[in-house]
Amino acid sequence: MATTKKKTAKKKTTTKKKKTVKKIAQITTKSGHKLTPQQELFCQLYAGDREFFGNGVQSYIEAYNVDTSKPGWYSVAKSGASENLTKPYILERIDEIFEAHGLNDQFVDKQLEKLIVQDADFSAKMKAIQEYNKLKARITEKKDITSGGEKIDMPVALVEFVDGESESSSSNSD
Hints:
By secondary structure, this protein is mostly helical. Among the domains are: 37-100, no CATH class; 105-135, no CATH class. Helix content is 49%, strand content 0%. It has 8 helices and no strands. α1 (37-47) runs antiparallel to α2, α1 (37-47) packs across α4 (88-100) and α5 (105-117) packs across α6.
């Protein structure tokens, strides 16, 4: 018996790493503006209740896959976030998400409380305390809305009437 050698060809198997991309459906705002998937993800992260809430830079890094190993990555993310947060349709979408998540008085009160008890930004803390005092009517502001701060000459009769006395009652007391 003759033996035959079989050649078996080995197939090279190459596996490519697939980049996982979060798929986000294209969203149209109430005013009709269409957002790109990155813009929608940015809005979702910024307005969501997770770790990126209210953090434009972190939301931008995540949504736009900013390479944090490259020099200047933070400046890129900061300017990109700032640019996004000045676009009216981005702000509109963020508001829509807030409304969908139940932005209400309780939530706002909780945020105000958070600002009041923090010790990192005293300017924000003071403004929050002032706002709290206004809400509770603890401190009232008196504003002159009639004269713009100028002296008003009022007729004597009007002054007497405002004070609750008339000319006749004051002349009777003489």
